[in-house]
Amino acid sequence: MKKIINTPNAPAPIGPYNQAVLFGNTLYISGQIPIDPKTGDLVENDIKKETQQSMENLKAILTEAGMTFENVVKTSIFLNDMNQFSQVNEVYATYFDADTAPARETVEVSNLPKFVNVEISMIAIR
User: Fold this and answer.
1) How many distinct structural domains can be found in the chain?
2) Average pLDDT score over the chain
3) pTM over 0.70
């Protein structure tokens, strides 16, 4: 059975979707962009801060679902400039243990919602 997961500690969806869907033991988290959920403002002009905000939004959703980054088995990172990969990776790495980090792909795209620089989605398992 499908259970919708939403929290005020992450940005509200900006379209016809939910922050996450729990199906059985699997949590599918929608892509998170660097919106500060407290203010609704975009975090901009610093890819490290943008990545950190996106990861904090993901963390809030994981927490709402009773999970942590240890439960994450797959991530997808979308960047509008692959030249920022190393900076994004530096921040991303602080959220995972290198020995148990999830599978991941990173893809350069031409545009993202609200024209942000980074969007990250995740799949987690209980």
Assistant:
1) 1
2) 97
3) yes
